[in-house]
Amino acid sequence: MRNIINNKNSFIAIGIPIFLIGLMMLITQSALFKSNTSALAIGVSTDLILVIPLIYYMLVRKTKIPNITVVPLLFLCIVIGSYIIPTEEQSLLNIFKSWGLPLIEIFILFTVIKKIRKGILLFKTKKGTSPDFYNILKATCNELLPKGVSLVFVTEIAVFYYGFAKWTKRVLKQNEYSYHKKSGTISLLAGILLIIVIETIALHFLILKWSETAAWIVTFISIYTGLQIFGFMKSLSQRPYKIEKDALLLSYGIMNETRIEFNDIVVIDVTSKDLNENNLNRKLSFFGNLESHNVVLSLKSENTLISLYGIHRKFKTLAFFVDNPIEFKAQLNKAINGI
Length: 339
Prior knowledge:
4 domains; 10 helices; eight-stranded mixed sheet; about 60% helix
């Protein structure tokens, strides 16, 4: 019964703003609006950027819908207002775009940073644990933002953090194992970065002969791609494998990760043999067969590999590289057997 009531409240919370937005669209198409455009344009603008978001907030604050969803609704209202209100009557909308939106963005960023800092402090109070920025960031953004927005936001912030804010060397604990020192991944990514730099310069001057705007667009995309790869590369050393009390945590920087319960592990093989072609045989490495492996885990049941932007892929056999595979297997067996 409670679920029915919650679903009903959520339906009302979403339905009323949609109805009001539709009403605003009808008003702007009416003869009354055309004869009193200046006065009604201010009213419609006020409803779109203030009244409708406020009503939505009042409706959702006691439902399962996150309060932060008022932000994308506000953006939607602004976009709709830009289309239905004549350009010359958008002075109120333009003022809000110039001053209101930047303040909202700063508020969201400040809230995220505050939540992340709180999460890190909470992790540090727990003896024997190391705060994982990426996991804290995901949990914080999932709490504050809609899922689609959260996934993009998490990736962009993580790339910046690991690429430019995190320079201290990660000291491995007894239950942590590195995978980037001997695998050749760093060399591969560094080579890709070098190619991007060379091609960016060459393409910029080549396209510049045809269009200056196009040349700068291509250059910006190339620089952005390079920054992404640099952040991915730096994250490898900051997110080692972890053998916990009841599970194995495997991560490939911020690009791939999974959690495997000990009771689901059937076989631990130290081998570099290629995997058979199978949809449930996967590599932890984001680069697939471009990178070698030296450990293969076989599981009882299907597990999930989570990639960038929340992409999920199933597996029953997972191959990955460990800098010290013999020690890794020994310690994992001890943990599984409770030794």
